[in-house]
Amino acid sequence: MFQPFYSSVTRISDLRTKPYECALLERDKWATGDYVICEVRGRSTTTYLVELCSGRLAPVLEGDAIIGAFGKRAATVDAVGDWNAIGKNNRLHALTSGGLFGKMTSQSHLMSPLMRLEYKGHIVRDDKVCMQNFVEKKEPRELDLPVILIIGTSMSSGKTTSGRIIIHELKRMGLTVAAVKFTGAGRYRDILSFADAGADHILDFVDAGMPSTVCPEEKFEASMRNFLSTISETDADVLIAELGASPLEPYNGSIAMKLLEKNIVITVLSALDPYAVLGIQRAFGMKPDLITGPAANTDAGISLIEKLLGIKALNLVRRQALPDLQKLLNKHIKERGTMGSSCPART
Q1: Residue 334 burial by CB count (10 A; 0-12/13-18/19+): exposed, middle or buried?
Q2: For the segment 118-155, what is each residue's pLDDT rounded down to a tens digit?
């Protein structure tokens, strides 16, 4: 195999600068978050791209080597996979371009086939190397920031686009912004787009040592509590918190919401349609402050949302919507102070 491609889930590691070896490990030694090296199999298609540590997408060919991490994905409209499903032939797939590796078990017929891979071994030093090796354990620290929570009714519902526009407006207000993606499947591009919008600090669950957040609740919560201490060390005035997919999906979004609950001052729900909003409301007993996404693409959609649900809806990509967004941000962020202690969650 040639010099490997280092996928974006390796960006928290020192694998690009310090030596390591590759070794085949027995199956009972495998675990979520293990760094492994795989060889690309099959004829390349449009999905044969690897997201590098810089966020750039690089095309790969059969025979190329990629270093990624074992994990799980459970996308409702895309693909599902799990490293536990890998068979004796050691064949698997790139579940995301960012280096989330596992065996695909279900895939939308609208997608191109996922990149096929073959397991060639674990990255080892004295022992196997995993993502958690590169996460600094922090002293517990309370999060003292007002939080703008962005959730969706599903993946691809417009959450990241909404986040980018909100970040841009917060920067116009002169605030220092931390933008964090708390749940999802390993891919760097979303939080890089937050940096492009002006966020001063960007982080995601990969920085917490997880290739995706499809994992046991207790493991996720422990990682998130340490992660919140890391976020608290920034000089941010406000935190944009995006939850990947939907909080109803198995990415532990509901746990993240509970951990952030007392700091949330604005909840933005990106929705594909008005009726999906009802599902989120009933599941969590919550009323968002703002509806965005495809459900608010047209005046007809906005009118239906406001008639059915009594919630403000905005098409944020239209400049005409920005004054209303600015009023919301001023009311809950600027006028109430920028510290979490003076900006408690609303009841």
Answers
A1: middle
A2: 999 999 999 999 999 999 999 988 899 999 999 987 66
DSSP reduced 3-state for 248: coil
Rounded (10°) angle between helices 189-196 and 159-172: 30
Residue burial 110-149, b: 16+ Cβ < 10 Å; e: rest: eeeebbbbebbebbbeeebbbbbebbeeeeeeebebbbbb
Residue-averaged pLDDT of the chain: 90
Q: Are strands 238-243 and 147-152 parallel, antiparallel or unpaired?
A: parallel
Domains and CATH numbers, the chain: 5-134 (no CATH), 147-342 (3.40.50.300)
Supply the DSSP symbol for 125. S
Give yes or no for a contact between 75 and 155, defined as CB atoms under 8 angstroms apart: yes
Q: Which alpha helices (H) appear in the chain, and where do they start and end?
A: 159-172, 189-196, 217-232, 253-260, 274-284, 299-309, 322-329
Looking at residue 188, the DSSP 8-state letter turns out to be S
